[in-house]
Amino acid sequence: MTKGPRIDTRNDAIDTDAGIAANPPRRALPLHRELDEVWRDLPGWRGFFTSVNHGTIGKRFMATAFVFFAIGGVLAMMIRAQLATRDGAFLDTELYNQIFTMHGSIMMFLFAIPLLEGLALWLLPKILGARDMAYPRLSALGYFCYLFGGIVIVLSLLFGVAPNGGWFMYVPLTSKTYTPGINADVWLLGVTFVEISAMAAAIEITVTILRCRAAHMPLTRMPLMGWYLLGTAVMMLVGFPPLILGSILLEVERAFDWPFFDVARGGSPLLWQHLFWLFGHPEVYIIFLPAAGALSTIIPILSRTTILGYGALVAAVIGLVFLSFGLWVHHMFTVGIPHMALSFFSAASALVAVPTAVQIFAWIGTMWEGRVQFRLPMLYIIGFFATFVMGGLTGVMLAMVPFNWQAHDTHFVVAHLHYVLVGGFVFPMLAAIAYWMPLICGRWRVRGLGEAAFWLIFIGFHGTFFIMHLTGLLGMRRRIAVYPENAEFEWLNLVSSGFGMIQAAGFALFAFDVIMQWMFGRRSWRNPWQAPTLEWAMPLPAPSYNFASLPGPRQPDAGALLPLARGEGLLAGAPRGWRETLVVEPGSGRPQHIAVLATNTALPVATAGAIGSFFAMMLAGLYWLAPLGIVATLVVVWRWGAIMGTDRDHPLVEVAPGLSLPLHWQVRQTLGLTGTMVLLVADATLYGSLLFGVGFLTVVAPGWPAPESGIGTWWMLLPALAALALMAAGVVAARLAETRRTRAGGRLWTRLGLACSALALALLGVLGWGLDDPTRHARDALRGAVLGFAVVHGVIAVMLALRADVDARQGRIGADRRGAVPAWQLLQTFWLGTSAASVAVVAAQEVLA
Amino acid sequence: MLAVPLLAACEGPLSTLTPAGPAAVEIARLWWAMLIGSGLITLLVMAMLWRALRRQSQGRPRLAAERRWIFGWGLGFSLAVLTVLLGFGIWIGERMIARDDDTPLVEAHAGQWAWEFVQPGPGGQPVTTQGVLYVPAGRPFDVAITSSDVIHSFWVPRLGGKMDAIPGHRNVHRLMAAAPGTYEGLCAEFCGLGHSFMNFEVVAYDPAGPLPDFADAEEGRE
User: Which residue range or ranges hold the Cytochrome oxidase subunit I profile domain (chain A) (predicted)?
Assistant: First the structure.
């Protein structure tokens, strides 16, 4: 173990005059026992179903992701075996199609995204100085949705009904006509089910970074990993809804024949491509950013210095977040879009290389200005540079429209995307795992295995994919199972296959190394890398509660390990027997209140099961039974609200001498409310994508104008306007329910609001009855979808109104206590806003028709 | 000495690196230029990395270092390279797209899993063929590309880039074969079970000589 100089991540002096004094020191062991009693998981199998702790869930996410990685890897080896010779007879074409589709889908949706979610869930509270994520139950719900959805997707392969249309599922190949089996449904329903976990993680990561940091850690000085994960989460919030919408529309087309993508009835297959790549391109950066965050964390520490250009890196992250949404069309350069428009997207695609270059050079500069230590993570970091730089450069090549016309859909693209994803994600993640393993398992690795694994992976990877660029340029397409007339591809493919096996051996050795470290490594000492960040200010392995007392301005970095363990930080111990963590103001990090988090519960797994039953019945084609799944979900979700309020006032809690804070039941800006706002950002994106669909099909799709509306539109305007008026009345009632909550008769307003919302929902039903047959034309189908959106939000608004009403009746609303009213207000307003926009769109269609 | 086997390895009936038409020639030229540039940039970055790994500097990052790495290399260098490349790329692309002039038009119609072509035959009468497209060599032609079922993509690698065949849409793609000969074409977008075999041929005939007999492609080709 080399001893380097002590490092301080934060350049400026910390403002210690925040008026927060240190708590008196206590003995660490009793403090540990007190906290562990409250925070630990239940023992045995019950722990598996009831744990909500971010440490447990995060590790579980990562371990599961690696299991799926292994499955995806086996599929990759089968592909390589098939392609090794030109007449490969290893797999028949149908099975081959399923296998390459599953390889891509598993690696994207069941490995990369969940792995980064797992890393974020596990790491964020530790690095930010909190005890858990903002919504522990949501973490667990996400995990079970991921697990159940992933299992279904993988099982489909065993039954020979796996998706077979390629991982981007282009219609019409995946429509009912050309894929009559359930193969495509497995993908659409399975992936959407899994993406519940992505949305949950995105909301949770955003809120945790904004509000669960250490006291007085301003946003502008949080560890870079925080910025990277914030960028990731924001991209997920805006990037996933188009995919989710696309999947819903395609599934509805397949199940109920609503023609969103059918050209004969006013749809367009290009709508699917736009929605898919609106997600699909940001997805690449969603995967890259957390990996880059790990690099920005590890590189300075292993270079015994501080990162070069903190501000520039933050700017680069923000730049990537924005730019990555402006270049999805570069996956569609050959669909016949005018060249001038392509040039715009080409420029955006090239421009996105700039923030990436800024990061690469900042990292190299950091190493240049420091003193690099050749530890195992550094080896993977070198592997990252050697791989990702080439992937980035071929990416710039592909951004050039003429070259893209040649290289698109060939093995050149296959090589490129593996260079980017393995270089930009897998190598940094392997570095991250090697780096954080001591914190995960408290042990030090076994010497030698890690290095051997690295060299096998590195040599195997480049041997497989470097010459694949040439294979592609020689004209070998993606996704062909055989190439009998092209002997010139054969030696290239044989080389790729051979090295592919070496690479697989490397990953197996890596897994073996991690298991050996977990089981047999010697105990690691604290802070083995002498890192400054807060996740090392705790004993190893990390305890269930992370910090015995939470870091404040006096405990800015890992040097505060002992004072924190002795309870000198904020909110020491668990004297009330609750899982408590500190909530701060988003910008400054000023402490605002204490959140009492959920403890072990089986609600998340029950909820995932209820949601899963809906997906299962859809998959089985039992459409008339599927509503039961929705009802089951609503019943279970209702119970989530139970712990979110209280029927009595609690005194302020002394967090430290001189600082007393209220509990979250008695403040308005709770984590729950922030999360609702963040959720509505994603929701608004979904709605925006739907409106994009309306506009796109109207302008681009053949088969328009649509046939004349059969409804007496002006007659339908009446219930529509009445519904809007009732929704607006609900908004007013919700507002009054909050402002007049202490007066006599305050309960009247929740009751009135509930009635208005329920009536509005019923009127939406009337509108649905008057709708034109949605299978007739895409316009009618889209109207059905827009109405469906309003109905779903109506149900949520009614549920929240009911919750608020029950809160009012049970005395869970008082002078400082607001129950579910603020969240209801928000949702009700959103429902009103989107519904009004929908009515305006339909009215405009009718007027202009 | 190494270049000879290397160039030989670039040849093939589907190789984009043995171009046989102006579009493919320009793209291949763009590729070689980008390859050289990328190779140099990769070497440069790797050399920097190598130096960074070997250096034993003790200093903390200074403002000058930040300026050099972030603004010099990160912003300045990358922006300069990308601007030049982008200008070049757009210029090449502009020159090869189909325009509204009197370039002769042929039709390519894709369906699972075969190609049907309509081209001017004797006396200018349209002739329909299966799996073979006849075009005059040395003259540009536009291909109107359509599909009757799923998405396919029309690609003759030695003549130029690809263009998708999308149901409900009609894409026009300009190509030219510099010399008479037979060029292999294929469907580049995954289209289901028969995708691996959805090939066709482009026969470029000498416009000065007699017209070919427009026979269909060899039988049994799916």
Answer: 45-554
